UniProtKB/TrEMBL annotation:
Residues 5-216 form the Nucleotidyl transferase domain. Pfam families: NTP_transferase (PF00483). Catalyzes the last two sequential reactions in the de novo biosynthetic pathway for UDP-N-acetylglucosamine (UDP-GlcNAc). The C-terminal domain catalyzes the transfer of acetyl group from acetyl coenzyme A to glucosamine-1-phosphate (GlcN-1-P) to produce N-acetylglucosamine-1-phosphate (GlcNAc-1-P), which is converted into UDP-GlcNAc by the transfer of uridine 5-monophosphate (from uridine 5-triphosphate), a reaction catalyzed by the N-terminal domain. It catalyses: alpha-D-glucosamine 1-phosphate + acetyl-CoA = N-acetyl-alpha-D-glucosamine 1-phosphate + CoA + H(+); N-acetyl-alpha-D-glucosamine 1-phosphate + UTP + H(+) = UDP-N-acetyl-alpha-D-glucosamine + diphosphate. It comes from Prosthecochloris aestuarii. Gene3D superfamilies: Spore Coat Polysaccharide Biosynthesis Protein SpsA, Chain A. One of its GO terms (molecular function) is UDP-N-acetylglucosamine diphosphorylase activity. Keywords: Acyltransferase, Nucleotidyltransferase, Transferase. Residues 230-253 are annotated as: Disordered. This is UDP-N-acetylglucosamine pyrophosphorylase. Residues 243-253 have a biased composition (Basic residues).
Length: 253
């Protein structure tokens, strides 16, 4: 089956305390978004759509050597709105769409391959990459049920019951959708919320309400789902990337 990739790269990154677009901050001498694009290319996708917004010209110039299509999100009205901007570039695409964050450089192609395998093997409409955290505070929780551990609900921290807050399996923000399911559901979501934004996670609510098959795959290493929002988190990511590079060199020796 065909694969397309959408990479979210429109954010300003206010907490990075810099005017530089967040995805262009460097880790181990390379922009964050480069890691995500290079990992995506290892999956041999038919198309990669990069959602740009803040300082879009700088992001487009920095990524111009890659075979990506840029789609402008202006204004920026949430994650669901960001993905809507890719629809024109993918209007003739039939297959699966992988959604990644341009500020999460630690994801590996092996984990993404497994995520896609689970999605296709189970003939799912939507599949979410999850992770088990010792302290899941602040993350959306993935609630499973039934004998085969089907996903029943994805609930944000602020909306979770006391029992749901005890769940340590969290939503990473990495997803695979059937293309038709994704864009049809995006037409049904609204921005009737405090932020007046269109949330991509609302697509799952539509999938659940229409009894579509939603699956999950848990990343073997929770480090993989780390996003970069602060200079401190950037340092932590550099530490992980440095360790991986040293391990790779040892294996090659």
């Amino acid at each position: 089956m065909s694969l397309a990739v959408i990479i979210m790269a429109a954010g300003k990154g206010t907490r990075m305390k810099s005017d530089l677009p967040k995805v262009l901050h460097q880790a181990c001498g390379k922009p964050l978004v480069d890691y995500v694009i290079e990992t995506s290319l290892m999956l041999d996708p038919q198309n990669i759509v990069l959602i740009v917004g803040h300082e879009s010209g700088k992001v487009q110039q920095a990524t111009s050597r890659f075979p990506v299509t840029c789609a402008l999100q202006e204004p920026q009205l949430g994650t669901g709105h960001a993905v809507m901007q890719a629809e024109q570039a993918l209007e003739d695409f039939e297959g699966d769409i992988l959604i990644l964050s341009g500020d999460a450089p630690l994801i590996t192609h092996r984990t993404l391959e497994k995520l896609i395998d689970v999605h296709r093997h189970d003939k799912a409409h939507a599949t979410v990459l999850t992770a088990e955290l010792q302290d899941p505070t602040g993350y959306g929780r993935v609630i499973r049920g039934g004998n085969n551990g089907e996903v029943e609900k994805i609930v944000e921290q602020k909306d979770a019951t006391d029992a749901e807050k005890l769940v340590r399996e969290i939503n990473s923000g990495v997803y695979v959708f059937d293309a038709g399911t994704l864009f049809t559901a995006l037409e049904k979501i609204d921005n009737n919320n405090a932020q007046q934004e269109y949330y991509l996670t609302d697509v799952f609510g539509i999938c659940f309400s229409e009894n579509m098959k939603v699956r999950a795959y848990t990343a073997p290493d929770a480090d993989e789902i780390r996003g970069i929002n602060t200079p401190e988190q950037l340092q932590e990511a550099e530490s992980v990337l440095g360790r991986r590079q040293r391990e790779k060199l040892r294996r090659e020796d």
